[in-house]
Write a sequence for this structure.
């Protein structure tokens, strides 16, 4: 029985399963499993996250109709055989930078891009990077086990780099301010050993100067950039505009007014 297998999974703090897993464990046909799953879905005990992959909704999450991302993200990406890490606002929330209570979850993956999941109340956005991080991905523990998450400084760097896809810099500025309280010297030094997007580092260094009185972090970035030839860039990327005169050491043209709501 599918229901019995679900009880078994919950007993060991597992909150998700695949159709292939069910077929192997129950020795039932795909059609008979689908019939049982349809009944459980109707009772709001199971949710079809994506083709062939399901979430279990124990009573405490049933009214929400979804689970916290950290309870199933590792098993989902094992099923998909893809690299991932919890990123952007979802990572920021883990570090306590949850000034904005967003309902959407965010995950970074390698190409090709996965289709976003948007079927209320489930809302997951997948973004991709071809330059997979060589560090700054941390292993965190949830009730369901270990999952991957960007470190505080990689979370900030990702927010800055993908600002135009995430609502703009001012929307995330308060989150960045809160995240910077979690960034350590070792975290930022590790980032500088492998991070190769110079424009993001320029913007990051400039923004850190604006949101914190601690000059150590911005100085580490500035000293790192000294070994490269850097050019003027816009604070907010805009393909239709070119940077003008710059008057700061990071050569950032301040083409938007920074406004935090903290």
């Amino acid at each position: 029985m599918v229901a019995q297998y679900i009880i078994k999974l919950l007993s060991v703090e597992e909150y998700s399963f695949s159709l292939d897993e069910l077929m192997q464990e129950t020795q039932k046909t795909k059609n008979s499993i689908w019939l049982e799953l349809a009944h459980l879905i109707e009772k709001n005990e199971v949710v079809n996250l994506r083709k062939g992959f399901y979430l279990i909704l124990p009573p405490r999450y049933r009214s929400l109709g979804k689970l916290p991302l950290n309870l199933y993200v590792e098993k989902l990406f094992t099923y998909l055989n893809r690299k991932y890490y919890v990123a952007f606002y979802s990572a920021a929330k883990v570090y306590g930078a949850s000034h904005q209570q967003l309902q959407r979850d965010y995950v970074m993956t390698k190409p090709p891009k996965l289709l976003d999941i948007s079927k209320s109340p489930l809302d997951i956005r997948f973004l991709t990077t071809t330059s997979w991080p060589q560090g700054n991905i941390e292993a965190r523990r949830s009730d369901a086990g270990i999952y991957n998450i960007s470190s505080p400084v990689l979370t900030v760097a990702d927010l800055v780099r993908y600002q135009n896809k995430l609502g703009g810099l001012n929307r995330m500025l308060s989150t960045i301010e809160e995240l910077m309280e979690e960034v350590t010297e070792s975290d930022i030094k590790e980032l500088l050993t492998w991070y190769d997007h110079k424009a993001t580092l320029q913007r990051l260094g400039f923004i850190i100067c604006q949101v914190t009185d601690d000059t150590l972090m911005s100085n580490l970035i500035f000293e790192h950039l000294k070994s490269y030839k850097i050019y003027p860039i816009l604070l907010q990327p805009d393909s239709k505009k070119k940077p003008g005169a710059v008057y700061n050491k990071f050569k950032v043209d301040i083409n938007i007014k920074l406004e935090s709501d903290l």
Observations:
- The longest strand covers residues 122-128.
- The mean pLDDT is 93.
